[in-house]
Amino acid sequence: MDPHLLRTFVAVARLGSFSGAARELGYTQSAVSQHVAALEGDLRAELLTRRPVAPTPAGVRLLEHAGPLLLRLDAARADVLRLAAAPPGRVTLAVSPLALGPRLPAALPATGVTLRVLPPAEVPAAVATGGCDLGLVDGLAAPSDPLRLPDVAPLTVTGVGEEELAVLLPAGHPFAGRAALRLADLADARWLDAPGVGLPVGAAGITARPASRTAVRYEGTDLHGLCALALAGHGLVLLPHRVAGAAAAAGGGAAVALSAPRLVHRTELLSPGAPTGAAAALAARLTAGSPYDH
Q1: How many other C-beta atoms can be found within 10 angstroms of the C-beta atom of residue 217?
Q2: Of 66, 81, 181, 207, which one has the fewest beta carbons inside 10 Å?
Q3: Share of the chain above pLDDT 90, in %
Q4: Cα–Cα distance between 241 and 61 in angstroms, integer?
Q5: Residue of 105, 87, 86 whose CA lies nearest to 95
């Protein structure tokens, strides 16, 4: 299967337009049509309806495979180019918002580093495809267990740290005075939906509520904005205890420790193989003394 044809097909399906895909990819509309027709001929299946432009059942199935396949190709290209190039003088570090813990500022050199704050789901791909030299990503895990990361490419993963968790509650919440909470106690609560910064309570066994009854969906990566929404009563949020405690102290809410299920906030360092040069030095500082390597 020709990846150039596959990329064209994905663009047409995403945009719902042959002409739109032609503009985006820099091809003529005729060339885009030929690419799709060639791919359909190769697979012996119709992949797109033409009026309107939409994927057929076979096209939907191919799209499920296309994203991981194209990402893996981009990662392979970036990995080879990285090996062939001289070690760069600057390091680009992708960081998910809650991975910006106290270890990071102390580990950074005075110059030569660019920080890119990304949603947790985007950090592995940014490292795999060469957009960033290193990545710090966070999530929920059982103590000492690794995070469940997407299989975008062979990445070296090193545990950096684990922290206790807490639920951030607004002032006056019925549970604000408790010493600890089980997530089961909050099964009927409204949770903030914040995929770019928050910890997904669904991973901890809390089933998402119907869309008509969910709290605010927050699509930013600003942690202060997320905490402000929680303290204003728009929904609960699960955070590292140090983050929830600081937000509660500043905003008049409460940070109540999570007692069950037994989970921690885990941060991991991602690199494309063994880092070299400035990236290796930064990686060593970020993981110095960490008992969580795996």
Answers
A1: 11
A2: 207
A3: 65
A4: 42
A5: 105
